[in-house]
Design brief:
five-stranded mixed β-sheet; Rossmann fold; about 450 residues; single chain; 18 helices; BirA Bifunctional Protein, domain 2; 2 domains; eight-stranded mixed β-sheet; alpha+beta
């Protein structure tokens, strides 16, 4: 039998996991610095919590969990015979693995509204699952790293989240990212201008969301199938460039209160970061940015790297109605997500991880037998308490073999106690990088100055 992972999942070797943990540590440090508190929610949610929140395409990617025991007897076989598969699936599955962390957050906030204070600023770093086609940087099981603010609507929240993006990616070594922004009210107004109203606005946004992948011509053709009156020239004028200006859009569209609100928010955010608050990375308005999920209502954000092989490194936006779906009315929310897998791939490709990153063991204890380790163990315990990572070689092998192990694992120091050292209660400390050896008495050993 050939052993392999399930499609869309991945094992992580120690070095890979160390890199991921490093990124997570940077994220957590920044999240708490910006005033966010950590929560945790279950991996499994009721189907009624998940379904109908992501749009038709998103709902299809939710992993459903089969009912067990007596519940399976309630399968609606008539619906299956009539090819009404949604009804059949609902009869055999009442639970699902969470698709993202935002919808469970909305459920969490509504359920615990009397136990938390608002605005509620939370971060969450947990696994999610999507029955999507696996590709580079996109798995069916992956970790989402989210921050959200639930409470009154304030443009300060958009500004802070953009600042958080810049702070995190700067700390990780990125200097050439582009933080894209757009506004759903602007996209809605553009859709209306081209004759897409009501439910067709969602179709328009879904197609625009894929424009960078499918190309502008294919996107236009797809929209023209829905509305043949769409102007090809104006569509290309608006969507062919990455940097179409707000003034260009204003000159094409008819003004409305909704459109003006969107323009004002984009302009205020851009002005905030224009001079003394200038970001390390670039901030650009991009009309093609759509963020396909149905629940976005206001400003939307996405982070991309130049010449990236994995797509966006993060994204999010304002959602004013999601929490109300769980019977908690008039509460606005905004959130962003960081793509951990994609960030790690991009950092590897750009060489942003330290070359010695995998060297997590500081000191190797050479093993010449238990009689020596008994003498050394108080020192080993002290070193570990002081914060050093100490590994004891597992077998009483020849010294060269143990030193080769230290070199292979990029361990900087080895501690040796043999017959001579044991006689005078001392140790030999060897620096594996430069070969320098020191002999030190164990009595009153001050190891603070030895390992650096």
């Amino acid at each position: 039998m050939k052993l392999s992972n399930l499609k869309g999942t991945k094992d992580f070797l120690p070095e890979e996991l160390s890199k991921r943990n490093y990124v997570v540590d940077v994220l957590k440090r920044n999240f708490t610095a910006y005033g966010f508190q950590e929560i945790s929610t279950p991996s499994i949610e009721n189907s009624e919590t998940l379904m109908g929140k992501y749009g038709d395409d998103g709902d299809k990617l939710v992993f459903r969990i089969l009912n067990s025991g007596e519940k399976i007897k309630k399968a609606d076989l008539e619906s299956f015979k009539k090819k009404k598969f949604n009804g059949f699936i609902n009869s055999i599955s009442s639970k699902g693995l969470r698709y993202d962390l935002t919808v469970p957050l909305a459920r969490f906030v509504s359920q615990h509204q009397n136990e938390i204070s608002f605005p509620f600023k939370r971060f969450q770093i947990q696994n999610v699952w999507r029955a999507d086609r696996p590709q580079k940087g996109r798995f069916q099981e992956f970790i989402q790293c989210d921050v959200d603010v639930i409470g009154k609507k304030s443009l300060i929240q958009e500004i802070e989240l953009i600042g958080l993006y810049d702070s995190v990616f700067s700390d990780l070594g990125f200097k050439d990212l582009t933080i894209k922004i757009n506004h759903r009210s602007i996209l809605t107004s553009v859709a209306n201008y081209f004759g897409f109203h009501g439910k067709l606005v969602k179709d328009f946004i879904t197609i625009i969301d894929k424009i960078d992948k499918s190309g502008i011509s294919n996107s236009y053709d797809e929209l023209a199938k829905i509305n043949s009156d769409i102007s090809k020239k104006i569509f290309f004028d608006l969507f062919e460039s990455n940097l179409v200006k707000l003034e260009t859009i204003k000159s094409v569209l008819q003004n409305s209160e909704e459109l003006e609100n969107g323009f004002n928010e984009i302009e205020q955010v851009s002005q905030f970061f224009s001079k003394q608050n200038k970001l390390t990375n670039k901030l650009n308005f991009d009309l093609k940015l759509a963020r396909g999920l149905n629940y976005y209502t206001g400003l939307i954000i996405e982070v991309v790297a130049q010449d990236s092989s994995v797509g966006s490194l993060g994204g999010g936006g304002r959602y004013d109605e999601l929490v109300s779906l769980f019977n908690f009315k008039n509460v606005s929310g905004i959130g962003i997500s960081f793509g951990l897998e994609r960030i790690c791939i991009e950092m590897d490709e750009k060489g942003l991880f330290n070359k010695d990153f995998h060297a997590k063991t500081d000191i190797l204890i050479i093993n010449f037998g238990l009689q020596y380790l008994i003498q050394l163990y108080p020192l080993i315990k002290s070193l570990r308490k002081y914060g050093y990572n100490v590994n004891i070689y597992q077998e009483n092998n020849k010294l060269n073999k143990q030193l080769s192990y230290a070199n292979h694992h990029n361990i900087k120091y080895v501690i040796i106690m043999g017959e001579n050292e044991m006689k005078d209660n001392s140790i030999t400390i060897k620096n594996m990088r430069n070969g320098v050896q020191q002999n030190k008495k164990l009595m009153n050993l001050d190891f603070k100055d030895i390992f650096n």
